[in-house]
């Protein structure tokens, strides 16, 4: 979820997002990702627009201000957890 | 021609609320086409690619549940503990009571042992199925409507929320009151034939309770049940709450009440001669039987609630 919020700082659509995440080593299934995007949108963490410029209309998602704030908080949490693990490993 | 994708999308949408359908359909179709296109670009055959993409997406029911944010379980972790606890208490208290009542009714009818046993088992099974079915249904609805069982939900939990053990003194005074009341009740029942409330023509007292009770010995069973319930109350007081003891105590409290209901229904509790001698108007005497039955029913229910309350307190 955090990965979605981070990647979607630049607007993107479902299938492309799936590819980006997989390229970066996140194993996520399509049937998990698509519903997740809609849930995040419903919670106001993402905004969406239909892009009909191309031959195939696609729904582009983008992280909202609220989503970005949450992403910062979650990143901090993640970092402090990471630091905690590192110090644990260093201590043993 | 309907393609595999059409059928997949349609199956998924059928499980979604209508107002979400058009938007999800567009997005889902675009996503599937994107994925198929990518595979075809990688050198796969069109139909092979389509099958592979849909296989990867998995069961449409699962996908639809994800879109609709619908739980894929009947009773979730938030309610599960309450669910099992309530079910345990209900099954361990109601089922034996019903089985005993069914058996007693058959015995009174003079049925052979096999019939008595059969009725008891079938009544117990039917009751158990009903209890499990309805409890599960109610909890499944609670789960889906988002209602929460505990009124404390949303308040942070603190150790203060732990149930306070009833102080030993209050429990002691309850115990004393119950003992005195029980012994007095038993005494009144046993001595009632010689109570001189109404006298017949020859100056002999007319018994308040039906002499049938003494002729059959049922009155001693009633007194024994009342005393057994007192004994179990003492046992609960000294041993603390244990499931077996708690359920046995609840049963013992319910049993005299159940017997009262049955006696009233058979018109075998009060002495008809006594009622006639009181000279009460007929309208009043007609209500005596229903009143006794209601009293007994209230007794059974209070025993049940008491058991549930103790079980919840743990």
From TrEMBL, chain B:
> Would the keyword Repressor turn up in this protein's UniProt record?
no
Domain of life of the organism encoding this protein: Bacteria
The membrane-spanning stretches of this chain are 86-108, 120-142, 175-192, 212-232, 244-265, 285-305
The answer to whether the entry has keyword Protein transport is: no
Indicate what this protein is called per its UniProt record. Uncharacterized protein
Under the heading InterPro entries, the entry gives: Perm_prefix_1
- The record lists the organism as Catellatospora methionotrophica
Q: What are the protein's UniProt keywords?
A: Membrane, Transmembrane, Transmembrane helix
């Amino acid at each position: 979820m955090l990965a979605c919020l981070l990647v979607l700082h630049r607007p993107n659509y479902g299938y492309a997002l799936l590819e980006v995440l997989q390229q970066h080593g996140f194993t996520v299934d399509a049937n998990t990702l698509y519903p997740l995007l809609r849930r995040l949108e419903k919670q106001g963490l993402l905004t969406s627009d239909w892009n009909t410029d191309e031959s195939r209309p696609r729904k582009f998602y983008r992280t909202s201000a609220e989503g970005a704030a949450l992403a910062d908080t979650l990143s901090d949490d993640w970092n402090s957890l990471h630091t905690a693990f590192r110090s644990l490993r260093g201590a043993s | 021609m309907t393609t595999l994708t059409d059928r997949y999308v349609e199956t998924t949408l059928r499980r979604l609320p209508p107002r979400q359908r058009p938007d999800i359909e567009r997005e889902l179709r675009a996503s599937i086409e994107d994925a198929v296109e990518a595979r075809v670009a990688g050198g796969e055959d069109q139909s092979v690619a389509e099958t592979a993409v849909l296989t990867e997406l998995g069961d449409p029911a699962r996908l639809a549940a994800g879109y609709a944010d619908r739980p894929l379980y009947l009773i979730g972790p938030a309610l599960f503990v309450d669910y099992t606890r309530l079910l345990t208490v209900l099954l361990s208290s109601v089922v034996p009571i019903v089985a005993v009542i069914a058996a007693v009714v058959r015995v009174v009818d003079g049925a052979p042992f096999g019939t008595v046993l059969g009725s008891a088992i079938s009544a117990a099974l039917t009751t158990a199925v009903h209890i499990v079915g309805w409890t599960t249904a109610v909890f499944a609805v609670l789960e889906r409507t988002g209602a929460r069982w505990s009124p404390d939900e949303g308040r942070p939990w603190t150790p203060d929320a732990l149930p306070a053990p009833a102080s030993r003194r209050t429990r002691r005074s309850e115990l004393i009151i119950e003992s005195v009341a029980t012994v007095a009740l038993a005494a009144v029942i046993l001595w009632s034939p010689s109570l001189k409330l109404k006298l017949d023509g020859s100056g002999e007292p007319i018994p308040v309770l039906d002499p049938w009770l003494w002729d059959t010995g049922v009155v001693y069973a009633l007194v024994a049940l009342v005393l057994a319930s007192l004994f179990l109350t003492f046992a609960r007081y000294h041993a603390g709450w244990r499931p077996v003891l708690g359920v046995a105590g609840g049963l013992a409290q319910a049993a005299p009440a159940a017997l009262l209901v049955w006696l009233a229904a058979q018109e075998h509790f009060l002495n008809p001669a006594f009622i006639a001698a009181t000279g009460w108007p007929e309208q009043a005497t007609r209500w005596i039987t229903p009143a006794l039955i209601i009293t007994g029913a209230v007794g059974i229910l209070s025993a049940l609630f008491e058991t549930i309350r103790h079980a919840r307190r743990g």
